[in-house]
Amino acid sequence: MKKLRLGVNIDHVATIRNARGSNYPDPTDAAKLAFGAGADGITAHLREDRRHILEKDVARIKSEVNLPLNLEMAATIEMRKIALKYSPNAICLVPENRLELTTEGGLDVINNYNFLRDYIAPLKDVGCRISIFLAADKEQIDAALDIGATTIELHTGMYCDFHYDKNFKEKEVEFEKLKQMAKYGVVRGLEVHAGHGLTLETVGPIAGIMDIEELNIGHSLISDSIFVGIDSAIRRMREKMEEGRHDLASLR
Q1: What burial letters (b/e) apply to 60-77, b meaning 16+ CB within 10 Å?
Q2: Tens-place pLDDT, residues 40-72
Q3: 20 to 30 A from 245, CA-CA: which of 7, 86, 170, 214?
Q4: Does residue 45 carry a catalytic annotation?
Q5: What is the number of helices (H) and of strands (E) in the chain?
Q6: Is the predicted pLDDT of residue 249 greater than 70, yes or no?
Q7: How far apart (Å, rounded) are the C-alpha atoms in residues 230 and 218?
Q8: Which residues pair with 44 in a beta bridge?
């Protein structure tokens, strides 16, 4: 059974720093602690409005942290220049709206097909793996593959929202979609990741989807770290992920 990787998103360490305009807490320090706690990678979303991660954070994490860097970003010319400058291990293209509190849905590849196909070509040329953040939708997965993506990240936000709204019927429907589209992505030759809104309460079933190779988790880890420390928060999340994966494997 392949190990499920954990990518730790350190955006909200920077959110706290920026709230006071100080130099601390430092997201690079958080990334180093994540490495010590067993994270498999670091995810950072450099937004156009710079509400949390800054370019200097990308530079320091890339140079000082011995983990693959997954740079989340909108498909803008400015962001591509920055990505080409630092050549992160992976780039995850996400939709971005300046008025949103967080990423609200998957990228619409179908209606931006030509632009995105041309946009990612220089990034692939320098060796960046290209991931697209998507809703669990077959046509969008097909389009992501066609433009040259190697990876998709399935948006688990709706699944988590249904859980906390206690809308368990819709939660099961969304879970089944995620499960089927993860399988479909693998059949089409894509690597499948998942993330958004995952917590200790919701991560188990998603971790149990065997076609998913990596989960990217941030907000809940940084929130939990306020009470238990980042090392303990990551280790507890890892335990829940492994429980979810082994529980499903034992049913096979």
Answers
A1: bbbeebebbbbbbbbbee
A2: 999 999 999 999 999 999 999 999 999 999 999
A3: 170
A4: yes
A5: 11, 8
A6: no
A7: 11
A8: 71
**pLDDT band (50, 70, 90) for residue 90:** very high
pLDDT at residue 100 is higher than 50: no
Q: Give me the pLDDT at residue 139, please.
A: 97
Average pLDDT of the residues in 25-46: 98
pLDDT recorded at residue 182: 98
The torsion defined by the Cα of 193, 140, 205 and 168, in degrees rounded to 10, comes to 150
Contact 50, 89 (CB under 8 A): no
Give the C-alpha separation, 215 to 39, whole Å.
11
Task: Determine which one of 45, 52, 163, 193 is catalytic.
Answer: 45
Give the residue carrying structure tokens 């179908």: 110
Distance between CA atoms of 138 and 181, rounded to whole angstroms?
Answer: 7
- Which of 51, 40, 131 has the alpha carbon at shortest distance from 83? 131
Rounded to an integer, what distance in angstroms lies between the CA atom of residue 146 and that of residue 99?
30
- What is the mean predicted confidence (pLDDT) over 197-204? 97
Distances 156 to 71, 77, 229 between C-alpha atoms, Å = 19, 28, 25
Q: Which of 72, 153, 191, 214 is catalytic?
A: 72
Determine the length of the chain: 252
With beta carbons less than 8 A apart as the criterion, state whether 85 and 58 touch. Answer: no
Closest CA to 128 of 77, 75, 69: 69
Residue entry with tokens 């593959």: 145
Single out the catalytic residue among 12, 52, 163, 196. Answer: 196
